[in-house]
Amino acid sequence: MRIGLVGLGKMGANMRTRLRAGGIDVVGYDRNPEVTDVASLEELVAALPEGERLVWVMVPAGAITQGVVDDLAGLLSPGDTVIEGGNSHYLDDGKHAAALAEHGIGYLDVGVSGGVWGLENGYGLMVGGDAALVERALPVFDALRPEGPRDEGFVHAGAVGAGHYAKMVHNGIEYGLMQAYAEGFELLEAKDIVTDVPGTIKAWTRGTVVRSWLLDLLVKALEEDPSLEQISDWVEDSGEGRWTVDEAIDSAVPLPVISAALFARFSSRQGASPAMKAVAALRHQFGGHSVRPSTPGA
After folding, report:
1. pLDDT tens digit string along 106-117?
2. How much is the pTM?
3. What is the mean pLDDT of the chain?
4. 10, 42, 102, 174: which is the annotated catalytic residue?
5. Catalytic one among 167, 183, 240, 277?
6. Is 102 annotated as catalytic?
7. Positions of E strands within the chain
8. 42: part of which helix (H) or strand (E)?
9. Any catalytic annotation for residue 220?
10. In order of start, what are the domains of the chain with their CATH numbers?
11. Residue 236 pLDDT grade (very low, low, confident, very high; cuts 50, 70, 90)
12. Residue 1 near residue 25, CB atoms below 8 Å
């Protein structure tokens, strides 16, 4: 099976490698000439066998994704399918699907989780779209997802938009989990009764009810920098948390934990906070997100 992959950044490049290791022939395109396989989208499409071509788009959400979808609409043929795997807002998926449908081109939206560790561990995949298109793309999804039962790492979540909606909620939960670990770290640091804070958190990684991969990553961050002195407490938010809270307001669903975690990120931009250093460290560990170096005395 051969597919096209547009966008070879942190996630896209690792996905290309994992797909190839899983027996999928990948033609990748990126504007960076050092990583691309072909020089243009036109060359990418020409390199794929005609008839039910698959092109996975893995570029930043918003205008860049819109531009790639628009370009592909003019290059692909009826029966081909675009798979959009970026962190797009789910309402954009309906627009993309409708525009491509005018050309007879199918559309799937995929929420992808796994960050920079997905190459080794596999990616959690949440897919929205027509069941027949999902079935066609299953070899690709199987190569990307973690080893083991398919339903433990992959779901056809529903119609177009469901994949990105599920990923949005997933990321909202992630906000809350990271904030809880971070606040626990700050409370342990606040009093000298606990003399080994990194060791205490590491002890929680086996046998306790709060163990998780995120906790493992916090331990890794503390092993690299026990007091997180090298990391600023400034924490960005990439959009999904805001969208999750917006949806909660529209649906009258109370989200006190996720909302508080989002607002804590806003507060991180106003003054020093050990908890937000921990959140920044976690984002760097699981997703390779950039961190700001700490300033003297911070």
Report:
1. 999 999 999 889
2. 0.88
3. 94
4. 174
5. 167
6. no
7. 2-6, 25-29, 54-57, 81-84, 106-113, 124-128, 154-158
8. helix 41-46
9. no
10. 2-158 (3.40.50.720), 167-287 (1.10.1040.10)
11. confident
12. yes
